[in-house]
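Re: your question from the hallway

Yes, I did run it. Sequences:
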Amino acid sequence: MIRGKISNSVIRRLPRYYRFLGELSSKGVARISSGELSARMGFTASQVRQDFNCFGEFGQQGYGYNVELLKNEIGGILGLYTPHTAVMIGVGNLGRAVAQHINFNNFGFQLTGIFDQKESLVGQMVKNMPIRSTATLDEFCRENHPQVAILCIPKESAELVTKQLIKLGVTGFLNFSHYDIALDYPNVLVENVHFSDSLMTLSYKLSNK
Amino acid sequence: MIRGKISNSVIRRLPRYYRFLGELSSKGVARISSGELSARMGFTASQVRQDFNCFGEFGQQGYGYNVELLKNEIGGILGLYTPHTAVMIGVGNLGRAVAQHINFNNFGFQLTGIFDQKESLVGQMVKNMPIRSTATLDEFCRENHPQVAILCIPKESAELVTKQLIKLGVTGFLNFSHYDIALDYPNVLVENVHFSDSLMTLSYKLSNK
DNA sequence: TAGATTGTTAATCGATTAACAATC
DNA sequence: TAGATTGTTAATCGATTAACAATC
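Structure:
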């Protein structure tokens, strides 16, 4: 289905396409041309067609694209319909917010465990799941084989836990910490979320406009 | 200080340089060459030198770069030492976590007000600041002229509040909502933070490795 | 059929990498 | 001075845009 190596630039646009098509679909729009889609998203029509053509031929000459169909194709390409299991590490303000804010099921993941090292939190329920002690992480992973970890812990603890998790078979990270996983483990898949980088980028733009 | 138009790619690397140099500095590293810095960050030496040269000549032939000096230069370029005022809109799980998790002062911002439409939250203290009613947003902005808004509200409310804020003089947004501000207001500066996009990108990578 | 719009190839643009003279 | 490393120009690579034949 996927033709050759897909560039990072293309990959990063896929979630946006998926979101947009979802909105169109829920608004009852049945078909859309690359021209109109690009106009609505701020891309060029060429880019839209090039992007889709990385993965197949989803349109029809003279007609355009079927919104629902295209959305589902992209969802499939994104892997949303074959979820990966995930554990969350760290349930401070941030972890709790992320756990409660995001419906992992909609984005290709199934959250199977939530961990914190703070014993006072252990047993508390978050998203219908008990917070578990980090002390039981090894045992849990050997039984449940989570594929992904969502790291909501500070840099200091992140390094050690990451090592542990990788040993236990975790191959992907959603990393909110400032520990640079990708540098130490080049074969592991990492997506970083750094608010502070976003803030600084915004600061740059405000200061240099 | 800034030479010609700086590309987005360069800008997005600046916060990372800043962070790295901060760490080096706190480890007591006084000087570093483009070669070593690039190796530690996963860039090429050429790129590092090209990036810095967008803004000036911060190094010295045969020596390299003074870590502390370079860090401060980049901090300056990022505008971190001339903070912009910011308000936070929405203090649900996410807003609260962001407010408590991020030290805005370190990243070029001064948080001057926190707002929520839910009257039951009004008056509660977050980060030594009372949560204010969105009903008082107009009044507050006319008095305090915040330059930036951090949007931690759902898509549905975001559209209206954004319109209001822009009318009141806000020119920058850190946008956690899925409302696409940049499309409706091309002259406003927006940094989007979309967890779900990061999750889907990770899902793609896991599914297509 | 005629009009619209795709899929795809070619042209352009921009970003990254390589090379090296300048110089500390 | 000799060695190291910058600043900068030139070469390469990759991504975006334009163009158009294919075709629904």
